[in-house]
Amino acid sequence: MQTNTKKKEVVLITGANGHLAKSLSEHLNQAYKIRYLTTKKKTSKKKNYFYWDVLNKNIDQNALINCTHIIHLAGSSILSRWSKKNKKTMYDSRVKSANLIFDTCRKINSKPKTFISASAIGIYDQSLEGTINEGALKGSDWLGKMACDWENAADKFKEIGCRVIKMRISLIFSDKAGYLKYNLLSMKFGLGIIIGKKTKKISWMHVQDISRFIKKSILDNSFKGAYNLGSKENITQEMFFSKIKQKLFPYSIIINIPSSFANIILGKRSQIINCDLDIDSKKLIKSGFKYEVSSIEQLISKLKSN
Questions:
Q1: Domain that residue 117 falls in
Q2: What Rg, from alpha-carbon coordinates, does the chain have?
């Protein structure tokens, strides 16, 4: 007796080496056939990996044949020194890479159902006060303009019938990478460092919840446009460090250094660390998305259970 098995939809993920992409793969690999775009020729020899070279507008078209959903997470780290060369790499890896995928889709008549792109809360004017929803004023600085171009590149996919979702991601919390990992490590060795005002807000979302949001966005056709990806609870630096100290590392010492110190060390990059926006996640909540980690207490419980 022959059984009917539903053919798995194909999901293409860019930025495959990033922590979010790896987390996302774990959420999707049972239900979807996953492909990856890689800038490393050696890696492209692996199964389901395809080579691309954004600078030279070169992409293995096989990656896009019969592709159902594209998750565009590629982007060179904005924490690298903001030299002219590095800024170009940061821009091209986000914006020009999206344009290359779009142009290739049109060329081979590939029409994915969904295009989901990373973006960032750096798109907003950093001087804004009050809660910041998706319609808030965009920044006119280099970071804000790059994020706008990033989202405009994503919106082009509407021309080929794609449903477009733009994820304005805040700090990605994970004990395996980024801000949380390095602060936990520092406090484990006895030192927590608050940079600038203790009352400065930290907008964050756990990597597992972001992955779950992406999966829900693929499944639910009502998801469209820009979403602030932040927790229900925006915390202050003081709250974050005091809770981590209280629950995990009571022996650690917390010190406060002025933001001018970061300005000297990082230059213009310090605006990333000095971001003090109160991000509004109401659109995300109204969409029906359910967090697994929505508060600092739940985060600490998860850290304890790992």
A1: 10-173+204-231+280-291
A2: 20
* Reported pTM: 0.94
38, 18 Cβ separation under 8 angstroms: no
Query: Residue 44: phi, psi to the nearest 5?
Result: -65, -10
Query: What pairs with residue 212 in β-bridges?
Result: none
Q: Cβ contacts of residue 250 below 8 Å, gap of 6+?
A: none
Say how far apart CA 20 and CA 249 lie, in whole Å: 27
CA–CA separation, 226 vs 151, rounded Å?
Answer: 9
Question: Into how many domains does the chain fold?
Answer: 1
Tell me if 266 is assigned to some domain: no
Q: What is the CATH number of the domain that holds 156?
A: 3.40.50.720
Rounded CA-CA distance 184/241 in Å is 9
- Structural domain contains residue 299: no
Per-residue model confidence as pLDDT tens digits over 160-191: 999 999 999 999 999 998 899 999 999 999 99
Query: Does 3 have pLDDT greater than 60?
Result: no
pLDDT of residue 259: 81
273 occurs within a structural domain: no
Query: Which is nearest to 59 in space by CA: 44, 73, 77?
Result: 44
Residues 132 and 228 sit within 8 Å (Cβ to Cβ)? yes
